[in-house]
Amino acid sequence: MKLEELLKRIPVLEMIGNQNTDVSEIVFDSRKAVADSLYVAIKGTVSDGHSFIDSSIEKGAKVILCEVLPEDLKDNVTYIQVKDASKTLGQLASNFYGNPSEKLNLIGVTGTNGKTSVATLLFDIFKILGFQSLLISTVEYRIRDEIIPSTHTTPDVIRINQMLAKAVKLDCEYAFMEVSSHGIHQNRTEGLHFKIAGFTNITHDHLDYHKTFEEYLKTKKRFFDELNSEAIAITNIDDKNGNVMLQNTKAKKKTYALKTMADFHGKMLETDFNGMLLNFNGKEFWTTLSGKFNVYNLLLAYAITVESGFHEEDILKAMSQLKTVKGRFETLKSEGGIFFIIDYAHTPDALENILDSINEIRTKNERLITVFGCGGDRDHAKRPEMGKIASRKSTLAIITSDNPRTENPATIIQEIESGVEPQYFSKYTSIPDRREAIKMAIKFSEPKDIILIAGKGHENYQEIDGIKHHFDDKETVIELAKLMSK
User: Is 117 flagged in the annotation as binding?
Assistant: First the structure.
């Protein structure tokens, strides 16, 4: 693409060199620079991309976009100075790939919990309704029937535009995307044209990155602040910060709730481990999904689909055919009659929600055993809170390793244990090895007991000292339950 075309709608402070040059590729990692590429120098938290301008030129970059022009300007290289290189990258990427987000119905879902479930449910609903779509989620990326392993909840903006462009080429009409706080803060959604934005909830998470809850809240809110007047913003007003998301948005505002009056109102009429009978806006339907948190997820998916212009009866018919999202309240039953639930719950709120949902369904004649841990090199403040919740709401809580990363698993476990209240000391134990912890839960259980394995959900690895070792909770349960039933 000609540089002149690439710079459309981009405010440039200064340009030195040939504006008529051809650009083969856009990169923001100097190691990926190739002949005739445009290198974007971004000031990151760890390193400054300006330090790698020369190495990108050595690899073939012919255009440099930066915030500070280098003192030594090379011949035959075009230099472009902008105010914010990170934000500019988004618009550049959109322009380079033909602004694909404007040719699709792009729908973004943000919040602490439920993003993956809602985005995946939407992808499945629209498939049942007869539409081909793109899904960008924590679990996987899907373009029509092609599944691509996921690397980030919200990939970098170049990768997003590549996938959106491919979806356009393959005649997709919709794209459903998880929008993480990291992605918003790092401008990975910049230059994208969202038709609908949904908010699930906001609770204690990612404070290792955002430092304060106020910062985290502000970052989530920015997603809605940047919507245009043609977009639709849908928020959960049962969440105390639900209305905060809509305060400065130009978008059309819609609400959903279970506890208060809203544009989209839901009610749980019956529930068990096989599913729920729900009422949305006066219409009843059955779903095989369980748990109150899933009522919220389904209600947001319903609201988004209604706002996309579909008939309520068609939507509810499609929703009644939905299957559980991988690693989200995923259920298994052993030959011995033990009931397993595998879930990604890794925040205090998510863990409490799933335990409350299980306790609401179970008759109390069965025991509830919870196996969980907390990730290393992440938010320390949530660890004692999760210890408190698990020991209070389970018959037995087994504290184990999650992804310890570079931390000592014993230290993480001690921090979780510090939240256990004295009256519940007899209701927990610690087993650092995750496989052994699951094994102990099965050994301790009897027919009809419920074992919740929380924290990793869909993940098929355990990260220890920077190395990802294969570990899948579901695989481990299937293997151990069979071995122990022999």
Answer: yes
**Is 18 marked as a binding-site residue?**
no
pLDDT digits (tens, 9 = 90+) for 165-221: 999 999 999 999 999 988 898 899 999 999 999 999 998 654 555 458 888 899 999
Q: Into how many domains does the chain fold? A: 3
Residue 394 is assigned to a ligand binding site: no
Ligand-binding site membership of 235 (annotated): no
In which domain, by residue range, is 478 found? 330-485
d(CA 102, CA 361): 44
> Per the annotation, does 115 bind a ligand?
yes
Asked which of 287, 319, 351 is the last residue of a domain, the reply is 319
Residues 219 and 271 in one domain: yes
Residue 113 annotated as binding site: yes
Instruction: Assess whether 124 and 203 both reside in one domain.
Output: yes
Tell me: is residue 186 an annotated ligand-binding position. Answer: yes
Residues in the chain: 486
d(CA 40, CA 27): 6
Query: Per-residue pLDDT for 391 more than 90?
Result: yes
Q: Does 379 belong to an annotated binding site?
A: no
CA distances from 324 to 75, 319, 320, 435 (A): 58, 11, 11, 24
Do residues 355 and 311 both lie within one domain? no
**For residue 294, what is the domain's CATH number?**
3.40.1190.10
pTM: 0.87
19 is in an annotated binding site: no
* Mode of pairing for the β-strands spanning 133-136 and 140-143: antiparallel
**Looking at the predicted structure, is the pLDDT value of residue 334 above 60?**
yes
137 labelled binding-site residue: no
